[in-house]
Design a protein that fits this description.
Belongs to the peptidase S8 family. It holds the Pfam family Peptidase_S8. Keywords: Hydrolase, Protease, Serine protease, Signal. One of its GO terms (molecular function) is serine-type endopeptidase activity. The protein is of the alpha/beta class and 461 residues long. The protein folds into 3 domains: 48 residues, no CATH class; 240 residues, Rossmann fold, CATH 3.40.50.200; 125 residues, 3-Layer(bba) Sandwich (Glucose Oxidase, domain 1). It is 16% helix and 24% strand. It contains 8 helices and 21 strands. The strands form 5 sheets. It has an 8-stranded mixed beta sheet with strand order 6-5-9-4-10-12-13-21, with helices on both faces. A 7-stranded mixed beta sheet has the order 15-14-20-16-17-18-19, sandwiched between helices. The relative contact order is 0.16.
Amino acid sequence: MSYLPNATLASGEPRLVYSYRQVITGFAAWLSPEDVIAMKTMDGFLFARLDKKVQPRTTHSYEFLGLDHNSGLWYDSEYGSGLIIGVVDSGIKSTHPSFRGRGLPPYDPNKWKGRCYWGPPICNNKLIGAQGFNGGRTIPPVDDEGHGTHVSGIAAGNFVDDASLLGTGSGTATGMAPKAHLAMYKISSAGDLLKAIEEAIRNQVDVISISQGDDKPEFMLNGIVIGAFAAAKKGIVTCAAAPNSGPVPSVIDNDAPWMITVGASTIDRRITAIVKLGNNREFIGESAYQPNGYSSPELPLVNVVYCDTQLPRYNVVGKIVVCYTSINNTKMGENVKNAGGFAMIVTSGFGNLTSPEPHVLPASHVTTQDGNEITKYISASSNATASIIFKGTELGIRPAPVIAVFSGRGPSLTNGGLIAPDIVAPGVNILSAWPWELGPNQTGTPKPFFTKAEPPWPPLM
């Protein structure tokens, strides 16, 4: 008996997208609402769900976590040597320095059952697997978003000396398991995600790391929860990011006892950019772009709020422009620069959370409260001015760690009040691998940057 009305679409393409055997007993296919209604009357049918897009959830971190090269957890675990970490995400920049195989032992061919799209020398003792899934098609696992490269570097990036972001946060970059092997499974939809988990189980990875997810999935239809259960039965740990939906309570998903749900916390590093107003009040912000020889001129302030492409209708030439945070603050900075603005102040949309972003012009990212104080000053003054003073990388900032305002909270409303997330780890302003060069002088060259942790779990019987 077939659940499909026929084998092909009107276009001639196969109707069947994926067939699942490890994670679930089922399939993904192109079906009309009428096809699904007819399928529901057939023997053996359990449920159907509409496929969805999945969304991403992103040099000093290892020191902050107390990891030492010569003793303790890192040393005793041999930096994750022999471990195979499968990352389910947006792909990978395979030639990035963080994924070189130098100094790593070869993988065990009796254990690893996967394949690597590129082959040697790009595939090596670090990057041993790479596959891409897109609606039933096999695609190159190239990262065109950046997120997959970033989280891969956090999980298992090799040691990279002299890494930095625009000269800040300088040091030796490393993932939490720098001697572990890495396999990338590129996805874009929930159907792809299930297929990637199934492939990772077949390939016999030790850990599956997932920082993607549906928007508020039902527990019984959550592909990560379902896939993690199948993985746990094979002794494979699944670590998944909590949703970026805090600080509202009980918005946690991936809230199953057979997986590890990871929240995000801050670290004690700040890449400081101080806003000094004309009335001498100062507000501490952040920016990864710390221009050399910057003289911190006092300039007129203008409050634009939404710094979209309509900036030319404001007189921003030679001024410091105040903008409310957006999805892409660096793009917002490009708009300010192209309109003739000299510098930018970004007001955070996440309370007291600031971010050192790779801006293309002098900038400072300040807290919501401080941003409100700056706009009050502009409204009350006929000649509001400010300057931005860059202080570089500062360590030992307290309090730290603090739960990130955006990190999803529990307790679970769908799983018996389960307390979640299970653990938190550094997840704010983490410098890690990125596919392209960033900042005011972009050339498209990949740059080394930085770091997080996932422990083992016994098989589910």
